[in-house]
Amino acid sequence: MSIRQCALNKSKFVYIPTLLKPFIPFFLILFCFLLSFSYAQSSDIVIVAVTLNGQSKGEYYVRLTEDRDILMRIADIREIGIENPEGRVTEIDREPHISLRSMHGVQFTFNEKKLGVEITVDPSLLPTKIIEFLPGRQPKVYYPRDTSAFFNYRLDYYAGDSFDFNSFNVTNEAGFRTGDILFFSDAFYTKKSDDEKFVRLMTNITYDYRGGLQRFIAGDFVAFSGDLGSTLTMGGISFSKIYRMDPYLIKNPMLNVAGFVTLPSEVEIYLNGMRLRTERLSPGGFDLRDINYYGGAGLLEVIIRDPFGKEERLNFPFYFSDLLLRKGLHEYSYNLGAIREEFGEESNTYSDVAFTAFHRYGYSDKLTLGYHAEALKDFCNFGPQASYLIRDKGIISVSLSKSLGTEGRDGAAGILGYTYQDRRFNARFFVAGFTENHARISDDLTNEKPQFETSAGVGYSTERFGSFSVDFLSLKRFYGDDRQAFTASYSKALSGKSTVFATFRNTNEERSSNEFFVGINYYPGRDHTVSASYRQNEDTHEEVLQITKNIPVGEGISYSASIERTDTGGDNFTSINPSVQYNAKRGIVAAETKIDFDREGRTHEAYRLSAAGSIAYVGGTIGLSRPIIDSFGLVKVGDLKDVKVFYNNEEIGRTNASGKVFVPNLSAYYDNQITINDKDIPMDYTISGVMKFVSPPLRSGSFIAFDIMKFQAITGMLKVKIKGEIKPAEFYEVSMLVDGQEITFPTGKGGEFYFENIKPGRYKTVLKYLGKECIFAMIIPESNDMIIDLKEVICEADR
User: Fold this and answer.
1) Is the domain defined by 713-796 classed in CATH 2.60.40.10?
2) Three-state secondary structure readout of 529-558
3) Under DSSP, is residue 749 helix (H, G, I), strand (E, B) or coil?
4) Pick from 651, 618, 649: which is nearest to 632 by CA?
5) pTM
6) pLDDT, tens only, 570-603
7) By CB neighbour count within 10 A (0-12 exposed, 13-18 middle, 19+ buried), where does 744 fall?
């Protein structure tokens, strides 16, 4: 209704007071405007059921225009799933509305009978669902930085016939950690009947920056500078990127797949025919992220089914390899120091100062570039390297090297390699060439230097027929005999409990020789292995039968026994070699003997007795433990004795009288699962949890405490003494100071009170009685009872 139409109907008013007649035109116009506005509003607003790309989104208020456009609140547009709406915006009742007709990529249909709006949107305008394929980390992981120390020792006594003394060895390791810094040293001592020697091995200080996966070493270390460089033991400083600090980080490229669905759909993801996951998708985008596989080439298949049964199959070939770095990642090591000579034989023999380095960078997910370098005072060796992914057809790698120096050390070298692997087939090729004067720091000039080396191999495997591979090697030297070798190998799992394997090798170097080996492993139980093998090499025939019980993670016995028969044509002998090891709570003891019988009935005996253990410190506790191979932990379960403790679901030991037990084999940087057996916890104790995940630094000790408290209730009757009269303090709130914190508890009828788990002691307590503070001491005695009844507790209000 327009304002003019309203004015033409003014004759309908029957009575108008005289005083109001001068204001009739004003009121008439205002009334008609309001009536017109109200009429427009009621005719525009409609409640409709909204469907977006076939998916019901619920009911919403919309406004219908005369030209059959629909205006919808921007907030509602975002709520149904269109994240960034763009179009003509109109503000109505201070709310921004957008025209559906004006939105790019949006179409709609209005059903008047059903009062529904069907909106169809380009999927690119809808939210993207991200589906992660990397395994999730544990939500609560403890990253300890405790001060700790350990001293590992191993004693070995060797004896010959009639148990005559042969030698005695002592090996030790010592480490001390505070925060991110580790001090470490190891050494060994050997005593023989005619000689004795002490040799220091490695001594260094290591600083690990876990956030950046970087390590700095001052002292002794091993440095590597690439395939055409050297591996050296040095004393100096080293700075490296160490991805092992985060073993859950995948440094090689992974597969990411993105797409869109226009209707609500179900997607199934298959990797090499094995279903990884099934997901339900709303209309819009989907992003499959960080799919990882360690088998080289393969196929990812994505099957999308819409509500009407239509099926779409998308195939994505891929190739995974740890030879490549993900785009943007660096891997490096820079080292400067003196070369350690005769390592393992001498303690402090250092020679020339050297520099070595390698650095790799993920230029893209298909290309990794890098270089290596090493140098002495009058010599250097350097060159580039690259690894490239040929789509899904394998990895090609190239390394070049140029050496410059005195004494005829100017030369060049290069390596070209190719690898391919899929579920069944693998192939590899390698060729390397060297000029005569090419040199590396680690080269021994007396060695027979290679000139040209080629190797190639292929392999094929099936579940039914097993795995077969052949390899060929050709080595041409500048001096000395050339070498060619051919190897063929086969293996097959006969059942879930046995595996057979065989190898044939032909070698030509000075003369031709053949070697054949065949064996079988049988696994009768979880901890046992039985193996038998036969080897023939020219005139030598060797047969071995062995049974082994694996070393337990915690306490227990392991053993091994073998019998070996060797025939060398002119002679033969038989060897019997039993050994046993016992993992005790505080150390390891072992014994081994080997007895040889020749064809003449003569015997030769050899014996070994060993003892090993560790002295460890962490959490204010010094204790004895089995040898600490990597990191260790001290688990404390209150003061409870004989509580079973498990490491990665394997029993590691029981707590002692102080509620403690050492765990000597934690893995640095991994999420180690430590669990206690709740059935060993008495009923009158409460515990916050029975499982913890601990990720310790390298060669560190961690104090792992399980919060446990003995349940103890304290009751009594609180009374007030005022003017010589004792009255119950009924229905008051009482505050008590416990270890610097205020706790409160109420009183009931007769002054009865109750609270829990306050350790024995004397505590200041305040009762507000009749507007005044009555202060007294709450004394809790030592007791093993679950309920401590304090009887009457009197607060003297007159004081």
Assistant:
1) yes
2) EEEEEEEEECCEEEEEEEEEECCCCCCEEE
3) helix
4) 618
5) 0.80
6) 788 899 999 999 999 899 999 999 999 887 778 8
7) exposed
